[in-house]
Design brief:
InterPro entries: SAM-dependent_MTases_sf. The chain has 403 residues and is an alpha/beta fold. It has twelve helices and 21 strands.
Length: 403
Amino acid sequence: MQHRSFGLAALTTEMVKSGDRILDLGPLSSGTTQAFLGLNCQCHIEDLVEYLADNQHSDDPLQALEDHLLPKPANLKFDVILCWDLLNFLDLDVIQHLIRLLQPHLKQGTILHTMRYTGRNQPNKPRRFRLQEDFCFEYVDDPSYPQVASKGHSTVTLLKCMDRFSLFNSLMKREGMDQNVTEHFLEYDSTTSRNQVRSGGASDVSAYFRQVRDDEQVAFAGIGKTLAALPTGATVLDCGRKNGRNIDALKKKVGSLYVEDLHASLAWRKKMHGEGSGFSESMFSFDPGTKLDGVFLWDLLNFCSPQQIEALGELLAGRMNPGGQLHFLVYKANQQPERPAMYEVLEDERVAVTGIADGRSDRSLGSTADLMRQLPGYRLFSHHLARLPSGDSVQEFVLQLKG
């Protein structure tokens, strides 16, 4: 079985610089070390597989971990830590102790990459990863690796025991990835909003593995008009899906880009608080003082009630600069896909539209006049018609915040 690691590809092609210091907690045999050495990085190997093999029945696993780790110079600070799948097989107290032992060698911005197993059938020992090409790894069942049951740690549980690390990106279910693996990037002492997109993030390498087909691309006239109307160094919010799409092209066209999957947040609130739940300030995780120049809602409003649209318009108005642009799409037919599609702005300002659901539901939005009444703080800036790859016709709106 194979797994294509978008995370490791992002590290080696976009994020790691010459001279960076890498701590690899896996064995030397993975082949990735050679890629980092080729970038003139300093690589340090700890091999926690060996620790697991020697100490899985230890009376004092924390002391055994201290004894296993190699002594390091006091001034050594790591830029990147590679955990592979090993955190799945360590108890939480061991993980917490590991972070404490490494803390003298961490600095603000240290990146930790790890792979977390999901699903029911989790491996009963760490996997040996053998690098093939294009950061595709073959799983090797190594008989020398110890039999240790996966602990099934959730992302939240992991973060609680990893003092001062915060999650800034997750990768899952992309083409070539093992569907039961989620890759996480954590950052030590991060000062950046966790939903702000940074250059050199893992989305940068999506195009490295996947070419957008011609029949997936749509020329939305309003996209060019929206981008042209933004000020230099604009701050923009994209309300589409967080994971599994390439947002680097959009990031390069604006100053600061934030991503908030509002449809997922709304679905979660419905699950927790009932069908009548709406949008709230808590859905925005960036600084309340951050003022937005543009917002891309994509097809979100098609899945909202009139009351939710009105509430969202007010929330965004409080976060936007006067004259800020609000872009969204509205389905024209009486039937629409049952969930939002995925939208990726490309370098030429065309948009790749994928993930359009086959299932259909009744259109919930009213007329254009009804929609404008639900967004009284905005004026119409631009209006166009377009057709999605599925054949669905949509209206494209660009509104401008009054004032």
